[in-house]
Design a protein that fits this description.
This protein has helices at about 5-10, 55-65, 65-80, 95-105, 175-195, 215-220, 225-230; strands at about 20, 40-50, 85-90, 110, 120-125, 125-135, 150-155, 165-170, 200-205, 225, 250-255, 260-265, 290-295. It is of the alpha+beta class. Strand 7 and strand 8 (about 165-170) form a beta hairpin. The protein is globular and about 50 Å long. The protein starts with a helix and ends with a strand.
Length: about 300
Amino acid sequence: MVSRRQVLGLLGGGLICRSAVSASAEAPTTREGQGRSGGSGVTTIAYNVYKCEGWHAKLAAKRLGNVGFQVPERIALELATYDPDIVTFSEAPPERTVAHIAERLGMRHVYFPTGGDWPGALLTRFDVVEHRNCPVVEGSRPEDLFTRHWGRAVLDTKGAFGKIVVHSAHLHPTNPPVQVREVSEILKSIAADVRAGRPLLVQGDLNHTPKMPSYSRWVEAGLIDTQAAAGNGDRATIPASKPRLRIDYVWAAGPIAARLKDCRPLFEGQFRTNPDDHGSFALSDHIPVLARFGA
């Protein structure tokens, strides 16, 4: 079966998971005009980091040499310019690398082991109250579902939103029926939080476009597509050279959804290739999606 990445290449060339606390390092300086949201709001970023290999990996290796060190460091520096409160990774690197990025950002992290070879992670400056890997409502992870990752964490913002429930997910890329079943399991898991009106985010590489059945399931469940709500729904998130598909999302529900200020793909800086430099590389083949919520 041809993967989604192969197609794009042809077009354009129930377990408690582990966590670590690494909040001692000073995060790099933020860009001018982009201050920490602090008690005034929440900034979150969803990013498929392509295992921190750089994209295209051969170009990254040619220019950087030690890709295993330099790409994670550059990802940390680039993310820091947006001063996020929450970052979720799809296709995360090994946990030790996630821990290094979290330390550079002055954040804690939670690692979500995968059913295959695509773990996830959540990094945050907030206190992690609880977390669980693949939190299906009944039983354990079905063998054919969540071969990428799905994890849940409750974060204490100590601000206007109180405790926020965050789900990080990476859905199946090539089997729409399996993907719909994965969405169904997530919707079962979030149902109680939605009914209770808790602040809720579901974000990550969901591998569907707005025209696919999985997208409709989120909408029918009452979640808000923050990028569309912010007026940027026509902006794609992959590939990083010339984005053609929108498959990365930040969905919101509860009181945080009503406080949306902005949501957009970060097609800028080192997150994209340089069209004037044929030897340039991006930090990943995906473009991260940033959402900001005011208090």
